[in-house]
Amino acid sequence: MMTDANYPDLNGASVLITGGGTGIGASLTEGFARQGAKVAFIDIAEDESHALCDRVEAGTGRRPLFLATDLRDIAALRAAAEKAAEKHGPVNVLVNNAARDDRHRVEEVTQEFWDNNQAINLRPQFFAIQAVVPAMKQAGQGSIVNFTSTSYMINGGGFASYTAAKAGVVGLTKGLAGELGPFGIRVNAIAPGWVLTERQRRLWVTEKGLNAHLDRQCLKEEMHPDDMVGPCLFLASSASRMVTAQTLVVDAGSV
């Protein structure tokens, strides 16, 4: 269920979301649009992203700006951030959501796989921040929300490169919070638990595995992409104006 909370300072804000066309990102795009924000999002899933723009515009009267970009291409990422600012004004809120949790066994990982995995899951977060920080410094304020994951906290196997990247996101968050705080820029992270996106259901959800995971949660309900919207809006808004360098775990109490 999409949150019904309202944050007036997000009305008219220029928001840039990476990976905003599908899964959690699509819910974030819609959630910020419902607040009245001017939303631009980066994704490579063109069909899904265009359909999302149509749906959000029909529901809110505000059409998000879709920027078809491969985040592994840093020059293209910088160009996309510039386009977002040209269309909507300097970015007030950056949400680094894009990620890909491909499974891999230790023996199968090549240098090329590792580098590509990090180029999706960690490197773009820094360079997206780098792209928007000058305007945030000039404005004397800004909110950056980085998506990490509880996966690196639970000692699970099968995706070591991904969990390494997600742990790195927390280090990036804390390091940049210290550096950017004097300019009024807040940097926080959200660590989702097992959010049942379409991709998760298609690739990895089994009845036995899901039931076992729900047993570990304090709240015995499935988590959906919409459940990430409220926490992200809170960290993006002035309601959390003195919150920075924090990682907000949203996992129904499984960690």
From TrEMBL:
Ketoreductase domain sequence ranges: 13-194
Gene3D superfamilies named among the record's database cross-references: NAD(P)-binding Rossmann-like Domain
PANTHER family: 3-OXOACYL-[ACYL-CARRIER-PROTEIN] REDUCTASE, SHORT-CHAIN DEHYDROGENASES/REDUCTASES FAMILY MEMBER
Gene Ontology MF annotations: oxidoreductase activity, acting on the CH-OH group of donors, NAD or NADP as acceptor
Xref: Pfam families: adh_short_C2
Name by which UniProt lists this protein: SDR family oxidoreductase
Coiled-coil region(s): none
Entry-linked PROSITE patterns: ADH_SHORT
Keywords: Oxidoreductase
Membership in a protein family: Belongs to the short-chain dehydrogenases/reductases (SDR) family.
InterPro entries: KR_dom, NAD(P)-bd_dom_sf, Sc_DH/Rdtase_CS, SDR_fam
Domain of life: Bacteria
CDD domains: SDR_c (cd05233)
